[in-house]
Structures are given as C-alpha cells and as structure tokens.
Amino acid sequence: MDLSKITNRCFLGLIAVLTVANIAAPKAEVSWDENRTLNKFPSLDIANITGGKFDDEFESWFSDHFVGRKDWIALKAGTRKAALAIENNNVYMAKGGRLVQTFQSYSEETLAGNVEIIHEFCGSQGMTGNILIVPTAAWGAQSVLPDGAWNVDQPALLQKIGEGFADQNFIDYTKTTNASPSLYFRTDHHWNEQGAYLGYAAIAENVLHKDPLSFDYTLASDAFEGTMYSKSGAFWTAPDSIHTITPKDKDLSVTVSYDAGKEVTDSLFSEKRLSEKDKYTYYVDGNHAEVNIRTNAGTGRKALIIKDSYAHILIPYLACEYDEIEMIDLRYYHSPVSELLSDKENTDLYFIYSLDNFCSDPNLAFLR
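The structure corresponding to this sequence follows.
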C-alpha cells in the first residue's frame, strides 16, 4: 500500500475518532474559562434542516464542545505568542504576565450622543453632574505593552470629553493620577482596589472637598481569573487577588437592597461570588438594575450613581461618605431615573463609566 493511501486512512480515522469522542463526551452549558454560555445542539425540526440553519448551528455547537477545547485555545494563544504576535483575540500579551484589552476605535456618534444626553438630563433636573470616565487598562499599562501596540490616545480623548462637559464637574483621571499597570487587574479589564482608591481620592477632592479616608485591605481570594484571561486564551497566566476593603478608623455598617428589595444583605461584599469564575462580582454582587445602600456614615448626604461595572469596586470607599447610595445600571433599569431625585439639595449626582464603554453604550438613552 502506498504512503498516500496510508496517510489518507489515518487522517480519516482520526476524524472519525474525534467525531465519536466529541459526540460522546459530557457537554457543559457554560465555559467558565471563556466566560460565556456555550451553544446548544441545534433543533432537528424540518424547517431548521431545510432552511440551512442546522449546518451553521451544528458547526457552532461542534466547535464549542470540541474535546479538549480549552487546551486547543491555549495552544493557539501559545503558538501566537511563540510566533511573536503581540495580541490574541484583541488582548495584548504584555510584560509581567499582564493581559490588556485593546482600545483602538470608538463611535464618535455614540460618544457625542451620550454627552448630549447627560447634558439634557442634568439640565432638566437643575443639577450639576459629577462625571468620572475611567481610562482603560491600555492607558495604565502603556509602559509594559509589547512593541508595536497601538491604542486610542485616552488622555487626549478625555480632554475632548471634558471640554464637552465644561458646565458639569468633569473629573479627568489621567490628570489626577499617574499611569501605572498597578492600577488595574492583570487578568481583567477593570481597575483594581488601588486604581479605584485614586478615583475615590479624586472624588474626595473635587466633589466632597475633603481629604480621602484610609482603608485596610484583607485578601478575599487569590484565584481571580478575569475577562482578559478568558478572552485571550492565555490560560497559563497566574490569577489576580481580590480584597475586602474596609475603612481604618470608621465602624461602617450597611444595609444593601438589590432590585427593589428582592435581596437584602448587610455587606458590600458577596461571599458566594468567590466560588464563581467572575470574582469581580464580589463587589456589591455584580450587575443589578438597582442597588440601594444605606449606611451609618452620618453625613446627611445621598449619592445617585448612574454607572457601569467600574463603579462597583469604588462603592466600599464612597459608602463611608454617604448615608445613602443609589446605583443605577441603565442596561437593566428602564424606569424614570428622575423619580430617584426627590431631595436634590442633599444629593450628589454621578456618572461613572469606563472610557471604552462610555463611547459605545447606547443605554444612556434611557435617561430621556
């Protein structure tokens, strides 16, 4: 038998073995390594088969449940790294085992629209908005990015946004803080407790007009593998640590109500989340439409925070400064926000977003 026939038969045999193994292997519903729900086996109804959807859905299902998928993903990322590629799946593989989301474009139209919406809302309420738009890790980690990495000039973009908010209280984080990789998690896209503390310090100076408080940090978990870990496929990367944040000289007590009282707790930290993949949800239990926090801070002040998830790790700091904090996530909260401003004289209004999300999030339209 000639070599070509042997090669063909071996190849066909390998395909057959992999197909049988793939079909027989246990199927998971969620890939915690990739932080997403996996595709389900397609419907076998006639319309799905004859309409052509079955083939595409089967291919997606087969790919999602391929035997050893995690190892294949890691092999691809490792191969790209060995070939001197500087990124994989839009994640830079930076020095020190740091994984950094690229930020190379944004929608001018969405950005302009969001600036206009906030202006309209603040004007209609007769209030000044305190606006903190946080640069992404691509700004903080610029000193460790691989050669050839390119991203949006975030300080210049923030300056432009700030000029558009000349009649609001715009806090430019790049002017109050020096860029450093240490301000962000290594495996996730969020800022960490150090970065958030400097955001709090900027708020203390520009909004509260006081010195920031001091805090203690207690290790809650050293096994946080964030969204960039999942997206990059660099599964060899060491995990991050998550910390409990508590004031040094203040005995803070809280009552936290999620989604109009569906769940009520006495902590800003969700212990159950530490057993899950996305441990960033340890801070105020992750994404909810509405979170109401009442404290014994004794300041007589309330904060209404319209935000994305960057605000979550900031809350343990701000909770020391307000008797009540109302957090609204417009991805899920579609009731009139103005109804939450019954005591405007004693309420500070915040908009806290990551820069890339502020440039792309269409949900601020629900303020109208």
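The radius of gyration is 24 Å.
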